[in-house]
Amino acid sequence: MATKMTMPQMGYDMQEGTLVRWLKSVGDEVSLGEAVAEIETDKAVVEFESTAEGVLLELLVEEGTTVAVGESIATVGAEGETVAADGDDSEEATEAEPAAEEASEPDAEEAAEAEEDESEADAIPLPASPSEVRASPIARKLAAERGVDLNTVEGTGPGGRILRSDVLAAEPMPAPSEEPEEEEPAEAPEAVEEPPMPEEEAPEAVEEEEPAEAVEEESAMEAPEEVEEPVEPKPEPEGSDMGLVPLTRMRQQIARTTVGSKTTIPHFYVSTDIDMTDAMSLRKEINASLEGDARVSVNDLVIKACVHTIKGFPKFNSSYTDDGIRMHDSINIGIAIADENGLIMPAILDCGDKSLTEISVASKNLVMRSQSGTLHAEEYTGGTFSISNMGMFDVTSFVAIIQPPQSAVLAIGTVQKKPVVQGDSVVVREIMSATLSVDHRVSDGAEGAQFIVQLKEYLEHPLRLLV
């Protein structure tokens, strides 16, 4: 039986993705887990791995097309197997063609008869309802927001399906914006409970008998017009009249994620200064005997220290749910990677069993593949704890926003020399500031303080990181 492969959800709030490039062609054999396409999410380009095994029977989406999560993009089945012409998901697609034709002929005749009956009953043909128009969920939502009539939009997707880009290219219809203005005055008198009065006479009765209320009703009816006027210029920011820069898909995703995090996750913060003098000396000794990607960075030391600390405080490697706190077995450390387009936070998977040099190699490999667009989906979405390091920008300290559905993120600044009082003396030490952001639904301030103090102990006594 043919199997449909659908647009995957590579992120807890991902709504759509763009199919950048097909890596396989129709007729090619594909195995389970084999890369068949490259998909651009809001933050990265990720290889899409086949969810079925067999022969690639058809490609339902052209390269460059934006598709909603869950929509079919390809069909995989046995060699020579037939599929429905329009890519339906029903099991009837795999039945013999004669049976399919016989089943469809009566339906076609009935549909034709029904159309004739409707045309005789109604003098004016009714336009297709929005539900009958073939359009993606994202296109429907966007059309509703922009006031675009889907019946007037020509779809460029498979089988004439209306896509998000088609709605963006369409101009809002003037009729829908005018109709509410004419209908609202007729509907407004319904609030005045006078059943015997016809709709057309209602406004006259209100004006003659209750002038005071009529004035209030007219002002109330005019209010929607004032509210609707700012809504109409929505499509204008795409041009240059407003002088606005359109948001990229990545920036839109960052906006959704950060707003969602700050409005749904109650953050609290704990900060401390960490003496990195011994850690920097150990790093220098280790790197003296290493080459290439194995050379250890400050961030690698922090990752390793976080792994050790999490093992003692597993609650910070969890996710909050309405049913309880979900504890994660694997420690997947997300690292913030910035480029000219925005910020992503892919994860180094299974850090719990990795040595310091293994973490160093994995970290550099992750950065390289994020830049080349070859991240795996689980690296993009599988983080359980994150680290944001702005030390390379000479930032001394800052606070980071938690990446949902994680429960904590560590923000670290640059390592700089500072005077420190030790006993009765003032000495110069290499100090790094660290701030832990925590989901208050998962943990409390005392536990957050214990976590960051333990992290400080590991970094100030770095030999423990090698055990």
Care to describe what's here?
A hairpin with a 4-residue loop joins strand 4 and strand 5. With 467 residues, the protein is α+β, with helices and mostly antiparallel strands. It is built from twelve helices and 18 strands. The strands form five sheets. The protein has a six-stranded mixed β-sheet. Helices cover 35% and strands 22% of the residues. It folds into three domains: 87 residues, OB fold (Dihydrolipoamide Acetyltransferase, E2P); 58 residues, no CATH class; 199 residues, 2-Layer Sandwich (Chloramphenicol Acetyltransferase). It starts with a strand and ends in a 7-residue tail after the last helix.
CATH topology of the largest domain: Chloramphenicol Acetyltransferase
- Give me the side-by-side strand order of the main sheet: 9-18-17-16-12-15
Q: Over all CA atoms, what is the radius of gyration?
A: 30 Å
How would you spell out the order of helices and strands?
EEEEEEEEHHHHHHHEHHEEEEEEHHEEEH
β-strand number: 18
Helical proportion? Answer: 25-40%
For this structure, what is the CATH class of the largest domain? Alpha Beta
Which structural category do the helix and sheet elements fall into? Answer: alpha+beta
Return the CATH architecture of the largest domain.
Answer: 2-Layer Sandwich
Distance between the amino and carboxyl termini = 53 Å
Task: Provide the CATH superfamily of the largest domain.
Answer: Chloramphenicol acetyltransferase-like domain
Q: What number is the mean pLDDT?
A: 80
Question: Residue ranges: pLDDT <50 for 5 or more in a row?
Answer: 86-106, 116-128, 175-186, 188-192, 198-228
Oligomer: single chain
Total of DSSP H or I helical runs spanning 4+ residues: 12
